[in-house]
UniProtKB/TrEMBL annotation:
One of its GO terms (molecular function) is methylmalonyl-CoA epimerase activity. It comes from Bradyrhizobium erythrophlei. Its EC number is 5.1.99.1. It catalyses: (R)-methylmalonyl-CoA = (S)-methylmalonyl-CoA. The lineage of its organism: Bacteria, Pseudomonadati, Pseudomonadota, Alphaproteobacteria, Hyphomicrobiales. Belongs to the methylmalonyl-CoA epimerase family. GO terms for biological process: L-methylmalonyl-CoA metabolic process. This is methylmalonyl-CoA epimerase.
Amino acid sequence: MLGRLNHVAIAVKDAEKAARIYGALGAEVSPAVPLPEHGVITVFVTLPNTKIEFIQPLGETSPIAKFLERNADGGIHHICYDVPDIIAARDRLVKEGARVLGDGVPRIGAHGKPVLFLHPKDFSGALVEIEQA
Ligand SMILES: CC[C@@H](C(=O)O)C(=O)SCCNC(=O)CCNC(=O)[C@H](O)C(C)(C)COP(=O)(O)OP(=O)(O)OC[C@H]1O[C@@H](n2cnc3c(N)ncnc32)[C@H](O)[C@@H]1OP(=O)(O)O
Ligand SMILES: [Co+2]
């Protein structure tokens, strides 16, 4: 039911600036992409085995605003796993007692595929995103 580690997300105040050091190391760095429906701007760094997603707040109601108030210098915000069937994964997780954030309906994420978020208190203090593979 669980696939590859899709990305590790780091919340920062300036995503392009944060990714710059990875570019200096020769990694592929994407352009900044605003995703108003998620309240963030993303910059992806592609590594051989996964990606780093830098997320910067966008708009008044960004879901990462409080996190950055608590972590002014930035910090690891969530981890994202591929799942082969996001609806089956959601239903199994709910059955096991995990809380799906929002209305439980997958939304299209940064890679154009459906994503869901799971409450950090149900995953040992780590916010988890699942993405349809
Ligand atoms: C670009 C699209 C997409 C992709 O395709 O990759 C993205 O990644 S979008 C990324 C941003 N979107 C989201 O994060 C959506 C889901 N997040 C949420 O719904 C909220 O951020 C949250 C997880 C419910 C937290 O809400 P918030 O209002 O910020 O926090 P609270 O202060 O109410 O926190 C409650 C509780 O949870 C702890 N917490 C909060 N954020 C995290 C975190 N990132 N990792 C671990 N723990 C977290 C927080 O410390 C509180 O704990 P207590 O103080 O012990 O109650
Ligand atoms: Co993400």
